[in-house]
């Protein structure tokens, strides 16, 4: 059995598989490749079977989204390392070897992310992950190479290997035993922020996440759900609150949540002033959904939460008030 499994979650993604599977097959000789299919109704699976007979197919019984989709599929994958790769990722030659070497040489490193560049503009980092992720005190995620909507050009400034707080679900490596110890992703999230929640839970148990700048992939981003879709806004706002409720240190929990809810209110008003009424209403919907599940998610809290989980206190203040647009300014 090979050491690493590349597992691609698919839902009606035949066109993406046609475009991006060739690079994965060509440049992943170290891996067993799987397609985890969320009950697609197109010809995705027949295409894979006809053109890539060595790829293994795992057929989920429904469209379970990212979180439960991977949870169900990975029950059938026994390789030591999982490489969870979006169907809109193009990989490069030798992308896996630096990751495997890092896992072999650093037993405490349990989660790794590659350098993620923009497939449509390959000189720039891509929004979802860029050069590795962090959060601020109020749960706002940001990356080396991407702060809110400011994207950095790749000039080799993040070609290093360094510890991060979260790895992007677009190209997410994790040891099998750690994924199973943590019971995988939280399936209630469906999609968005579930990888940050998983990394936070891993962090609270003392595991280390790293970024590996010697491994490069290109990500389309928004291929399954665009940033303009109100559903994406809803999932991001709701899931961020759930993530914080589960993982914040006990003595910081409610004061920090209150401030975050206030920030969300400001964001909702901003949507309103921009004429984005659907986005305004889904922020409200996300908050009501959060309140309705409050006790359920309080019961999911672990007994151990580290105090210092954040890189800086407020990325909102740094970005909008102090004009801190780039990671190296922090």
In short:
This protein has about 325 residues and is an alpha/beta fold. It has eleven helices and 14 strands. Helix 1 (about 15-25) runs parallel beside helix 2 (about 45-50), helix 6 packs parallel to helix 7 and helix 7 (about 230-245) runs parallel beside helix 9 (about 275-290).
Shape: globular
Helix/strand order, N-terminal first: EHEHEHEEHEEEEEEEEHHEHHHHH
CATH superfamily of the largest domain: Spore Coat Polysaccharide Biosynthesis Protein SpsA, Chain A
Q: What is the typical, i.e. mean, pLDDT?
A: 95
**Unreliable stretches:** none
The rounded Rg comes to: 19 Å
At CATH level 3, the topology of the largest domain is Spore Coat Polysaccharide Biosynthesis Protein SpsA, Chain A
Strand content: 15-25%
Q: How many distinct folded domains?
A: 2
Q: Helices and strands: which structural class?
A: alpha/beta
- The name of the CATH architecture of the largest domain is Alpha-Beta Complex
Question: How helix-rich are the residues, as a percent range?
Answer: 25-40%
Number of helices: 11
Sheet of most strands: 10 strands, mixed
Q: Determine and state the CATH class of the largest domain.
A: Alpha Beta
Number of DSSP strands?
14
Oligomeric composition of the shown chains: single chain
> What separation lies between the terminal Cα atoms?
44 Å
């Amino acid at each position: 059995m090979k050491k690493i499994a590349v597992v691609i979650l698919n839902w009606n993604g035949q066109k993406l598989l046609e475009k991006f599977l060739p690079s994965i097959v060509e440049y992943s000789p170290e891996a067993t490749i799987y397609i985890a299919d969320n009950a697609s109704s197109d010809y995705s699976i027949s295409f894979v079977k006809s053109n890539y007979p060595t790829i293994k197919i795992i057929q989920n019984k429904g469209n379970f989204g990212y979180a439960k989709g991977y949870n169900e599929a990975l029950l059938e994958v026994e390789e030591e390392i999982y490489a969870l790769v979006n169907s809109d990722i193009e990989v490069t030659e030798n992308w896996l070897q630096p990751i495997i070497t890092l896992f072999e040489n650093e037993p405490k490193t349990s989660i790794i992310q590659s350098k993620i560049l923009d497939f449509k503009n390959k000189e720039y980092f891509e929004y979802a992950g860029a050069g590795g992720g962090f959060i601020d005190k109020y749960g706002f995620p940001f990356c080396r190479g991407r702060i809110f909507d400011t994207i950095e050009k790749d000039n080799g400034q993040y070609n290093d290997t360094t510890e991060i707080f979260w790895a992007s679900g677009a190209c997410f490596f994790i040891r099998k035993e750690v994924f199973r110890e943590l019971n995988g992703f939280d399936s209630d999230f469906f999609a968005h922020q579930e990888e940050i929640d998983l990394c936070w839970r891993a962090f609270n148990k003392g595991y280390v996440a790293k970024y590996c700048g010697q491994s490069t992939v290109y990500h389309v981003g928004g291929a399954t759900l665009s940033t303009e879709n109100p559903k994406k806004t809803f999932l991001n706002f709701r899931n961020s609150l759930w993530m914080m409720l589960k993982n914040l240190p006990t003595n910081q929990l409610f004061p920090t949540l209150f401030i975050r809810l206030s920030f969300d209110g400001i964001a909702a008003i901003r949507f309103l002033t921009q004429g984005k009424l659907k986005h305004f209403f889904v922020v409200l919907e996300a908050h009501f959904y959060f309140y309705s599940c409050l006790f359920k998610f309080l019961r999911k809290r672990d007994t151990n939460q580290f105090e210092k989980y954040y890189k800086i206190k407020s990325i909102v203040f740094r970005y909008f008030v102090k004009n801190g647009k780039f990671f190296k300014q922090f």
